[in-house]
Amino acid sequence: MIKFISHNNFIRLLAQLNKDYRVYVPVKREDKRFYGRFENTPTEDIVIGEVRAFEPLKAFFFKGREKVADGFKADMPSSGDKPFAIVGVKACDLKGFKVQDYVFSAKSGTTPDGTNNDDTDPFYLQMRDKNLIISSDCTCVIDTCFCLALGVKPYPQDDFDINLSQINGGFIVESSSEKGEKVIQQNLSLMEESTKGKLSERDKQRDKVVKQIEKNIQENDIPSQKVFEGIIEKNYDSGIWEEEAKTCVECGACNTICPTCHCFLLYDQKDAKKMARFRIWDSCMVKDFARVAGGANPRHKLWMRLRNRFEKKFDFFPKVANLYACTGCGRCISACPAKIDIRKVLKKLVDNKK
Amino acid sequence: MKNPYRPIKAEVLDVIEETPTISTVRFKPEESITFATGQFVEITIPGVGEAPFTPSSKPSEKKVMEVTVMKVGKVTKKIHELKKGDVIGVRGPFGKGYPVDDFRDKEILVVGGGCGFAPLRSLMYELFHRSGQFKKLFFRGGCKTSKELVFKSEIDTWAERKDLDLKLTVDVGDSQWKGNTGVVTTILENIDMDCASGIAIICGPPIMMKFATKKALEMGFKEENIYLSMEKNMSCGIGKCGHCRLGTYYACKDGPVFTYDKIKNFSNIWD
Description:
The structure holds two protein chains of two kinds.
Chain A lengths: L1 E5 H14 L1 E8 L2 E6 L20 H4 L3 E6 L13 E6 L1 H14 L17 H9 L1 E5 L25 E6 L2 E6 L2 H9 L4 E3 L2 H25 L10 H4 L5 H6 L7 H5 L6 E5 L7 E6 L20 H20 L9 H5 L6 H11 L2
Parallel strand pairs in A: 2-5, 5-6, 6-7
Antiparallel strand pairs in A: 1-8, 1-9, 2-3, 4-11, 7-8, 10-11
Chain B lengths: L7 E10 L4 E8 L10 E6 L3 E5 L11 E6 L3 H7 L6 E8 L12 E7 L3 H13 L6 E8 L8 H8 L5 E6 L9 E2 L17 E5 L2 H14 L6 E4 L15 E2 L2 E2 H4 L2 E3 H4 L8
Parallel strand pairs in B: 7-8, 7-11, 8-9, 9-10, 11-12
Antiparallel strand pairs in B: 1-2, 1-6, 2-5, 3-4, 3-6, 12-15, 13-14
């Protein structure tokens, strides 16, 4: 279903959603956007369009720290809070869902040799099921954006409940799930028909942003995923890894900020009287990540862990799930204190294979 | 929905000291856990953490389970301090064990090293239980010194079995040791079996696995008939947490038992 909503009515829609959901909207602080709680009054700093938020969307679904076992009780620990409605989610973060969904659902149970099991992470799946995703088209780019290189368009095409395309006077509203359809139906009085003129305005806006990203990719000489096949295998023993890892300080920022990184630690509360277990984000860049109690460590050198990070994203995931676990969001480029630039690493890997 | 991270409460029934650094814990989970030999469980010490172990007990024993644990880290140190009546947690079983059904009518060589005897004891129980189904059964085991040999009295009874050809070795001999001296590969010579169609099962420390696999290949075992129990940092047990990745597999859900052909092309498999 496609409709149009004016800016004023859009604020009313958010207020309406606030009854059933905890509504989060992107809020601008200096030159960055962060998800902030919508408090029923429109503020100047709410930016629905523009580009992705500073923090990855995964933080809402796969929390940085979450209690997953409370004593030996059979029932699952649950917050009982209202579900989230997250507004202004960008297409790059929706691609992150493809990876997270694969990992935490039963899909990852199927292995290349055809065996499978159906284990799931019920905490993640419950969050995915309950929450509402209201995505939006990007209306500008920042210099680290390179989504098109990973086959992601700067406007959502799937994995959303409702998508918003900002045009003059308001937004084109489009549903892509039953849940989204229902929200539009319940709020039809706030909507208008979307005209051909409005849709062509949206398409022009989309084309404009695509061209800006194309320019970004060209200027930074970023290779396309079309030439990624085999880049890890062919460069496995190359000196690129050692060279790139030279400045790495092992902080794990690239992991925490990445919309596709999913690794976690099961951490037990240090209290002998009460067993409580937390699932906490982990980082494969940290030395002990793969170490076993006996002391053996398959990746004892930092450059091996950097290689592993790229191997996971550009070799493991394409082999097991037929997708590159990178969204082109560019967050790791901005987050890295050592200025390790994924675009440049990919370029080196692609060039070196010739 | 089932919570895969919740441990089942279990009561410690007994702690048996095997060697100064290896103990066997016998425990009874509140809900019975059925495992196939070679699968592993995660043992929780409340307030400390959890760690993966392959049970050393009989898969056919449904109510009580045993793990044989070497003192190497935080959790294993606490396991050694357990006493009868203590409460622990257990999750699992996870992964794939030994496909014993596929070993029918085959000659089987089991090679164990050090703490690798633990999962192998469970396997041997299963093989003895189904002894008539296999053509021949060989066990070759090694450890550093005779003091570090686990399950001593039990292995003495294995030596008397007619359905098993058993030989042991220690890396460094002493006055009490009457058997072979040398690493385990030294007792893999002159085994009267048809290696080309036989099954080799290898479990032990990484260095021993590496050389025993090399030796097994030289002896003529097919890559797809060499079964290896891979020690990786298994944590969640269900292929989600990312810690135990081995190439395109996770040791926790696709292993921990792998045939050599499946993993030989991955890098650093022995590290």
